[in-house]
Design brief:
heterodimer, A: mainly beta, Immunoglobulin-like, Maltoporin, Chain A, 2 domains, 22-stranded antiparallel β-barrel, six-stranded mixed sheet, 5 helices, globular, B: mainly alpha, 10 helices
Chain lengths: 702, 215
Amino acid sequence: MKFLQLTLLLLFNFALVQAQTKITGVLKSTKGTPIANANILLKNTYDGTSTDSIGRFAFSTTETGLKTLLFSALNFETDSVAVDLKNNGLTLNLIIKPSINLLETVSISAGYFIAGEGKKGAVLTALDIATTAGSNADVFAALQTLPGAQTSFSESGLFVRGGAASETKTYFDGMLLKSPFNPTVPDQASRGRLSAFLFKGTSFSAGGYSAQYGQALSSALILESTDLPEKTTTGISVLSVGAGVDQNIRFKNSALTIGGSYYNLRPTFNLIKQQNNYIKAPEQLSGSIQYKHKIAENGMFKFYATYGKTELALYQDNIDQPMLPNYFSNSNKNIYINSTYKEYLNTQWKLDAGFSYNKDSNNGLMSADNYTRTDQLTNGKLTLTNYFGTLSNLKFGAETFHTGRTEGLNNLEHGYTDQISSGFAESDLFLTNKLVLRVGVRAEYSSYLAKYNLAPRTSLGLKTGINSQVSFAYGRFYQNPEDEYLIVKRLNFELADHYILKYEINTSDRNFRIEGYYKDYSHLTKENPGSLDNSGNGYAKGLELFWRDKKTINNGDYYISYSYLDTKRNFRDFPAIATPSFAARHTVSAVYKHFIETIKTQVGATYTFASGRPYVNPNNSVYLGDRTKSFNNLSLTVSHLTHIFKQFTVLYLNANNVTGFNNVYGYAYSRDGLSRRAILPSSKRNLIVGILMTIGDNTFVR
Amino acid sequence: MKNLTKSIILLLVLISFSSYAQTGNEKFRTGVKKGLEMISTARSSEDFLKMSNYFERIAQAETKEWLPPYYAAYGNLFAGLSISDKTLQDQYFDKAMVQIEQADARNAENSEVNALKGYIQFMKMSIDPQARLSLMGAAATSLGKAKALNPENPRIYLITGQNTFYTPEAFGGGKAKAKPILENAVAKFAIFKPASDIAPMWGAERAKFLLTQCN
């Protein structure tokens, strides 16, 4: 029995040795809010617990001595305290700091519309661009539904906040793209050359953009190409306007894509009456090759090259001599090469290097005159980014443009070349996660103009709530005058100052933005009788609204944008300051998309309204004093998803101006001012149907 | 009698001693088993978070084991699936992603880890399908990898079948397409032998339930 007593005593002693320390307490945020479901634990042990709904915790441990108590919670920084465990109770009042939640962090936003997968603040995805009714998957057409951009139909490109189309520049992976459009016929817009599906992200900046982007006076369209495709697939598209095929071949760390397409608008033009009398409907043959290679964990090499050849010829009404319509023909060859390399050298440094080459050659007849025109641009760029602090960074780099044009008329040729060298530096400073300041500067030297410029840019963002933000931007932007003027004379840089103020509320399903701006233009190119100079100037001011809602209507998604624009300029051949013909005072776009699951079909509609645009009436003493009637357009698109031969297939239909609004873009007057010709859309209505098939992937991923 | 008493006492001492001084391996096994009991009784999002926290604690103590971060990821995934707030869901899934990557780093080329990763990626995609289409491909890639590593893992077919089940027919999914995959999952579950009593063995009931929904 003694032994038993001894053992019990031993056991008791043993239990004493193993005595537990009870740790209790409460966890609160720095603001005093109790934190639920936080993890409380003793480092390197299993001991710990989760906090309850009012932040309380209690657990026991057999550990003794000096230990570290860790505490962590979602959206808070993990923290620790040293605890001395001495077999008695311990009560802790813990405070935890909020972590930087990227979704709730302020961003550089003034002037920007970001489109892309999973991007913060993204309002349009690449798929959105492709499925916007009326856009026919053209990036530029889709962006015209966003605030700031005008509906442009008689000239290619984006007219942004009172700027001419030549003031919006396109950047492909950071490299300037000089000729992004298909050949244009007089008074008609043409589509962009690059497919929306080449890009994973599109940032459309209506002003105040980064110092990384030069030679753009009004707006920057920043296109970011996709990374490695997931699988080896074949894409086939057969449209009423042509056909294309592309083959993706996926290797372990790289991918090769080879594509070709042939477009001929003749069948469509035979069915749909065209404004112009085509002798040869536009016909295009093009091919492209793309290679992407992921190098180790942190590097990516991309190469893209495309070549296209287009032919067209037509007669256009001649208002001065109706019996002698103007003949116009164009044969175009376009080559574009873009190659970039990006590498995260370590956690602090990133390197970006790029090279691009673009040559666009045109020749043909204008009435009886033989014309030629060749534009070329070689662009090289090197950028280093240093990341510091939690979110801040410093970017700096150098860029070179070798650009020029050669023009000929009846074998008389002239041209110019310019070497623009530039350097830039920019820093995004996150003063807190609610306040960011961007300061940047860009300097350029043009050998042809023999002039320097220095452009400071700054942007400020302040988070005013979990989902809301106020932004401000100021920037100075320089651009060389257009080639057609440079070829005649060495001028000076054109200049614009942008001031932007924006307020936005973004949730995962809804976006609201209101943005106001003022732009001051100076040194614009002016054609005075017999001479060219930089005495032009102007201003633009406006207010824009954007509302997108993906939540209210089940399977439905809509956005509405409104732009108010007040602008006047004295440039080009204007005799006085006036609102240019490309500027409508009010523009409204409403875009709706609805997926009907039972019939596997997405339907979409886009309605656009623009108030009347100015046109020159030589009989009116006020220059650009007349206004066209307002513009209205309702376009519809239907995409039916199905399988043909077991392959994923989309049947596609896009109908423009279904209700047949009679739209007039402006008027061209005869020399005597007695008769005029309305500038009309290429056709009143337009229809495209097609089949897009993906082989090698049974889901809609490409 | 004395001897018997002695033996019993000795046994008791031994038991009590062993419970305080388990060998590392046993401690780990018992620890994970306790967590698995928490999984079996978890109903609410909060239950899953508590269970995930529990495994997170083991994960930081046992820095070489892949099961704790695997189950911690599982907990966050199910914590997200048990609520409807998309913002919060997204945060839980993000945390699950971090934890499954941790499991992957501890045991690369593991079929179970890749299968669960495919599940999380698909659920992340489903929060905003239009904007996150590329995650659909990423989920398919993870599940493909899981299958290449161990085609007998029934959870691959459960997750693939489930992803197919919830993908609209128009996008290559639907009940009809999910059915044969889920039938395969049920068949594989029937013959599946987990590597140990703490290895992943969840999903058989879910597969059967989803299969009944296919008709």
